[in-house]
Specification:
Elements: H1 2-18, E1 50-59, E2 68-69, E3 73-80, E4 82-87, E5 92-96, E6 100-102, E7 109-113, E8 119-128, E9 135-136
Antiparallel strand pairs: 1-8, 2-9, 3-6, 3-8, 4-5, 4-7
């Protein structure tokens, strides 16, 4: 009986101490997908030695990257600017600040800054350790 009273008293104190406590942390899902932006489904990933890499990439005004491909899964977050991505068969998508791009896997493409300020990207890569992040055509 004494244990039950002590437990109830502790619980009451915890409730009193945490009452009115508010948290300002928020979360927002920016992307949840099973495919790249051109609707190619991700295949079952079997990675023996996984390696995650995060890059910050800045693309200057009117600058474009070389034609390249990725042989691993990667997601790009547009922190600033306007980015247009174009495939070698001329499909394209344009992204703006705050948008997220599930990048193409195994398909050649390039990105270019189509805005009036530098593009800042945060890119998350996941693949087999030692796999190049991109391969130029």
């Amino acid at each position: 009986m004494k244990k039950a009273i002590k437990f109830a008293a502790m619980l009451f104190i915890i409730i009193l101490c945490t009452a009115g406590v508010s948290y300002s942390a928020e979360k927002q899902v920016l992307l949840k997908t099973t495919s790249t932006w051109d609707n190619a489904q991700y295949k079952k990933l079997k990675i023996k030695n996984p390696e995650a890499t995060v890059l910050k990439i800045v693309i200057g005004v009117n600058e474009e990257l070389p034609m390249h491909k990725h042989d691993l899964v990667n997601i790009a977050y547009v922190k600033k600017g306007t980015l247009t991505v174009i495939t070698d068969d001329n499909k394209e998508i344009t992204l703006h600040e705050g948008e997220v791009l599930p990048e193409l896997v195994g398909k050649y493409h390039y990105g270019k800054n189509t805005g009036k300020e530098p593009v800042e990207l945060i890119v998350f890569y996941l693949g087999q350790k030692g796999t190049p992040l991109s391969v130029n055509k």
